[in-house]
Automatic annotation (TrEMBL):
InterPro entries on file: Dimeric_a/b-barrel, NIPSNAP, NipSnap_domain
Native species: Chloropsis cyanopogon
Family matches, as PANTHER family: NIPSNAP-RELATED (PTHR21017), PROTEIN NIPSNAP HOMOLOG 3B (PTHR21017:SF19)
Gene Ontology BP annotations: mitophagy
Boundaries of every NIPSNAP domain copy: 13-111, 122-221
Family affiliation: Belongs to the NipSnap family.
SUPFAM superfamilies: Dimeric alpha+beta barrel (SSF54909)
Protein name according to UniProt: NPS3A protein
Encoding gene (name): Nipsnap3a
An annotated GO cellular component: mitochondrion
Top-rank lineage group of the source organism: Eukaryota
Length: 223
């Protein structure tokens, strides 16, 4: 099925999620904060978070690559990094119950943003759209996102659509000053006729949606 205009930018993002054993979450996060610098020496980390609401005992991290050859070279180097393998991976793997990764591109009309200030919380919203790709639902989805941005209550960080993983999936990363700030803004948005109209048009193409509140680790570039 057509997925829209040709992807001309080779840059992509690998979205990794790990389910951590419930009794080992604190230990895993402490190890990540302590040793992640060995991994970031090889490629760019966008952000590293743990789930607070909407999921439990889950971490999510996003890595940026120039192209697939770049990722291959990075992983070869990581596999041979004795500090990373010996100090983190050998100890962390027994703490992990399940791993999952996706490859995604930023949608053409979105650039990766940053929060207005350090602190606050992130919201990771996953939309499963109807088959057909951005050629089918792209414009309506963009209008719904812009309608939320225009209310001013939230800040958009990035919109990613999958290339490997479950297709026709869109992940949207938002930033808010606090969970309460986000809740108040959402209530206001639901009363905004512009948002309501845009969302009603977009949901024609929606299969499901999941929201997760994320807290950044100290080692995360996005804080």
């Amino acid at each position: 099925l057509a997925t829209g205009p040709r992807q001309t930018n080779g840059i992509f993002y690998e979205i990794c999620t790990h389910d951590i054993k419930p009794a080992k979450m604190k230990e895993f996060l402490e190890m990540a904060n302590k040793y992640l610098h060995f991994r970031t020496a090889h490629s760019e980390l966008v952000g590293f978070w743990y789930a607070e609401l909407g999921a439990l005992n889950k971490v999510l991290h996003i890595w940026k690559y120039d192209n697939f050859a770049h990722r291959t070279a990075v992983w070869r180097a990581v596999a041979n990094d004795k500090d990373w393998q010996g100090k983190f991976m050998s100890a962390a793997l027994p703490l992990i119950e399940k791993q999952h990764n996706e490859v995604a591109y930023l949608v053409p009309w979105c650039q990766l943003g940053k929060p207005s200030k350090e602190g606050g919380v992130y919201e990771w919203v996953t939309f499963q759209m109807k088959p057909g790709g951005p050629a089918l639902w792209g414009e309506a989805f963009r209008a719904a996102i812009n309608a939320h941005i225009n209310t001013g209550y939230t800040k958009l960080i990035g919109v990613f659509h999958t290339e490997y993983g479950l297709l026709n999936t869109v992940h949207v990363l938002w930033w808010n000053e606090s969970p309460d700030h986000r809740a108040a803004g959402r209530h206001s948005a639901h009363e905004d006729a512009r948002v309501v109209a845009a969302v009603r048009d977009s949901v024609r193409f929606l299969e499901s949606q999941q929201n997760v509140l994320l807290i950044p680790l100290q080692c995360s570039p996005l804080k």
